[in-house]
Amino acid sequence: MASFSRAVCSSSLVLFFLFLSFSEARDHLVGGKSDSWKVPSSESDSLNHWAEKSRFQIGDSLVWKFDASKDSVLQVTKRDYVTCNTSSPIETYTDGNTKVKLERSGPYYFISGAEGHCEKGQKVIIVVMSEKHRHFMGVSPAPSPAEVEGPAVAPTSSAVNLKGSFLVALGALLGFLMM
Ligand SMILES: *[C@@H]1O[C@H](CO)[C@@H](O)[C@H](O)[C@H]1NC(C)=O
């Protein structure tokens, strides 16, 4: 029994620190490089290609670096994203060193404010993982923006979260108490 408790305790501790490192809020440089906010040269170079490989959680931030005299970032509705309509953005970011905090789960739509750039593919959908769909220990690839039908549809991905950390902390505590 004692060795079982010790095993539970030590593995709980390992998991606890693992979860701590996972649940930190992160900054995501959109496109992965400082010059990524531009018309993509090919489909595989597209920003959505990058976004599909990334995992976004509530509390994370998106960061854009661009020449503020030539470009901007517009947060728009899904409809304006699809049609590249720059006339009534939800938010406009023009400072060239833009940081946007992701406060909710679901899709965010961004397009370039530079004339003609959105039509040439300078646009990105960021899908923030849903809190209620996260599962303890669950790890799965980020949902593809193409699978997202609209704001009402929550992405069905899972991830480690803060709640998981607390559970593991509790487990570690119990492990100590049982020793
Ligand atoms: C762009 O959006 C505005 C405001 O929603 C609308 O009035 C306009 O007709 C749209 N333009 C196009 C080309 O769809």
Automatic annotation (TrEMBL):
It comes from the Eukaryota. CDD domains: OsENODL1_like. Its main location: membrane. Keywords: Cell membrane, Disulfide bond, Glycoprotein, GPI-anchor, Lipoprotein, Membrane, Signal. InterPro entries: Cupredoxin (IPR008972), ENL_dom (IPR041846), Phytocyanin-like (IPR039391), Phytocyanin_dom (IPR003245). It is a lipid-anchor; GPI-anchor. Coiled coil: none annotated. Pfam families: Cu_bind_like. Residues 26-130 form the Phytocyanin domain. GO terms for molecular function: electron transfer activity. Gene3D superfamilies: Cupredoxins - blue copper proteins (2.60.40.420). Residues 1-25 form the signal peptide. It is found in: Cell membrane. GO terms for cellular component: plasma membrane; side of membrane. Belongs to the early nodulin-like (ENODL) family. This is Early nodulin 1. It comes from Olea europaea subsp. europaea. The lineage of its organism: Eukaryota, Viridiplantae, Streptophyta, Embryophyta, Tracheophyta.
